[in-house]
Amino acid sequence: MLILLEWLAGRTRAVTLAEASAALDAPKSSVLNLLRMLVEMGYAEREGDSSYRLVRLPGEVSAGHVQSGTLLRRCEPAVRKAVAESRESGFIAVVDGAYVRYLCKILPDREIRYDRNIEIPRRTVQVSSGIAILTGLSDASLTDEAARAEAEGLSDAPALVARVQQARAAGYALTKRGVVEGAAGVAAPILDAKGKVVGALNIAGPAERLAENLDDIIKIVRAGAAEASAALGWRGAKSGA
């Protein structure tokens, strides 16, 4: 079972019984029983008639459809690449209720950098990562979220809806002046294998420096989020969909 879990953790797509049997060099009947057990215990899910996908490992908590540990494990290389290319700080973010939770922080090798304390919760509607994740909401859910934010005095509802819609159309969210004074950030949504937004890749740094390199930062963030999404199995919308 542990060998099967380790092998499944490295797959970015659903696998067949035949593939799992060959990888473990074990009879199909034995591997099928293990796969069925993982499905029953909530560690894997069945896709179609004969494929299986790992959705979490023991001890992982949910980050939408994808578990946080899986998301971090699969997507961290894309964040490290984005940090190296941008020379700014990088984060993977997920939504936890009304807040953004950061799964990792990767700092660039430079003296002046944005070293955010990722233990401090940030309201989803106030940061670029949260806006990027909100792009995955339906119009009705987004309207409800905007109404709640306005009731709490966090944002004007129409303005928030417009910002999320703009980010959805552009493929990224920009915060020119962040919650932390002097900081700015760009974030793009990370999609799972089914095209659902499950997190965001965020590059942040001193506001003036990001403004000077904004076009390059946007390209790096969008490319990084696409790479992270591919690591989760997303292959893009099907033609004609």
Helical content class: 40-55%
Distance between the termini: 38 Å
Amount of beta strand: 15-25%
Ranges where pLDDT stays below 50 over 5 or more residues in a row are none
Largest sheet: number of strands, sense, barrel closure: 6 strands, antiparallel
Calculate Rg over CA atoms. Answer: 19 Å
User: Mean pLDDT, as a whole number?
Assistant: 89
Number of helices: 9
Secondary structure elements and pairings:
Blueprint: H1 2-9, E1 15-16, H2 17-24, H3 28-40, E2 44-47, E3 51-54, E4 62-63, E5 66-67, H4 68-86, E6 89-96, E7 99-106, E8 122-123, H5 128-134, H6 139-151, H7 157-170, E9 173-175, E10 183-191, E11 197-206, H8 207-212, H9 214-231
Antiparallel strand pairs: 1-3, 2-3, 4-5, 6-7, 6-11, 7-8, 9-10, 10-11
Structure description:
44% of the residues lie in helices and 22% in strands. The protein has nine helices and eleven strands. The protein is of the alpha+beta class and 241 residues long. It is globular, with a radius of gyration of 19 Å. The chain has helices at 2-9, 17-24, 28-40, 68-86, 128-134, 139-151, 157-170, 207-212, 214-231, and strands at 15-16, 44-47, 51-54, 62-63, 66-67, 89-96, 99-106, 122-123, 173-175, 183-191, 197-206. α2 packs across α3, α4 packs antiparallel against α9 (214-231) and α6 (139-151) crosses α7. The strands form three sheets. A six-stranded antiparallel beta sheet has the order 8-7-6-11-10-9. A hairpin with a 2-residue loop joins β6 (89-96) and β7.
